[in-house]
Amino acid sequence: MPLSPTELEVLQHIAQGRENREIAEKTFRSTETIRTHVKSILYKFKARNRAHAVAIAYHVGIFQGLPRTDEQGTSPLKPPAPDLTVQIPPEHPAAAALPADDPPTRKRTAASGTPQRPRPTNGRRL
């Protein structure tokens, strides 16, 4: 059975990780109405839970060609990359390892920092 336009809208909000209460606020409907739509989506897709319903929707291509409704314009399945840069204050001992021609507030990423010791495998802390 095809999804109604309202069910499709609710499914898009579910794919963005919103709870029933948040969906209800955004769509100006009651929480109980959203719960009913979610139950209908799960029944029509024969899905076990909300995540399974979203996976089915992506698998069959329901979201292809639909405009994005999230504020950031990002995909709900691809979160933004975390910012791993660290500011090293000039008084910090690690600042002495910076080259002299670089300013003291040079950004360094975790990948370019000093190598970390491997963790012990026997479960004891060092």
Which helices and strands, and how do they pair?
Layout: H1 5-15, H2 20-27, H3 31-45, H4 50-60, E1 85-87, E2 107-109
Antiparallel strand pairs: 1-2
Helix pairs in contact: 1-3, 1-4, 2-3, 3-4
Which class of secondary structure composition applies to the elements?
A: mainly alpha
Provide the helix percentage: 25-40%
Beta-strand residue percentage = under 5%
Question: Biggest sheet: strands, sense, closure?
Answer: 2 strands, antiparallel
Low-confidence stretches: none
Q: Which strand order does the major sheet show?
A: 1-2
Cα end-to-end separation: 59 Å
What's the helix count? 4
Strand segment count: 2
Radius of gyration: 24 Å
- Helices and strands, in order, run as HHHHEE
Q: Rough shape? A: elongated
Structure, explained:
With 126 residues, this protein is mainly alpha-helical. The chain is 36% helix and 5% strand. The protein is built from four helices and two strands, in the order H-H-H-H-E-E. The protein has a two-stranded antiparallel ribbon with strand order 1-2. Helix 2 packs across helix 3 and helix 3 (31-45) crosses helix 4 (50-60). The longest helix has 15 residues, at 31-45. The protein is elongated, with a radius of gyration of 24 Å. The protein starts with a helix and ends in a 17-residue tail after the last strand.
